[in-house]
Amino acid sequence: MQTDFDFIIAGAGTAGCLLANRLSADPSKRVLLIEAGGKDNYPWIHIPVGYLYCIGNERTDWLYKTEPDAGLNGRTLRYPRGKTLGGCSSINGMIYMRGQARDYDAWAQLAGDDAWSWANCLPDFKQHESHYKLDSYSRNQEKGQSSKKLEDLARFHGADGEWRVEKQRLRWDILDAFAQAAQQAGIPATDDFNQGSNEGVGYFEVNQKSGWRWSTAKAFLRPVCMTRPNFTLWTQAQVAKLVIDKLPDGHLRCSGVEVIKDGQRVVACAGAEVILSAGSIGSPQILQISGIGPGDLLQRHGIVVQHDAPGVGANLQDHLQIRTVFTVQGVKTLNTLANSLWGKSLIGLEYALKRSGPMSMAPSQLGAFTRSDPGQPYPNIEYHVQPLSLDAFGEPLHAFAAFTASVCNLNPSSRGSVAITSPDFKQAPAIAPNYLSTAVDRQVAADSLRLTRAIVSQPALAKYQPQEFKPGVQYQSDAELARLAGDIATTIFHPVGTTRMGPDGDPLAVLDTRLRVRGPGGLIVGLRVVDAGAMPLITSGNTNSPTLMLAEKAARWILADASAASMTGS
Question: Which of 214, 421, 467, 474 is the most buried (most CB within 10 A)?
Answer without folding.
Answer: 214
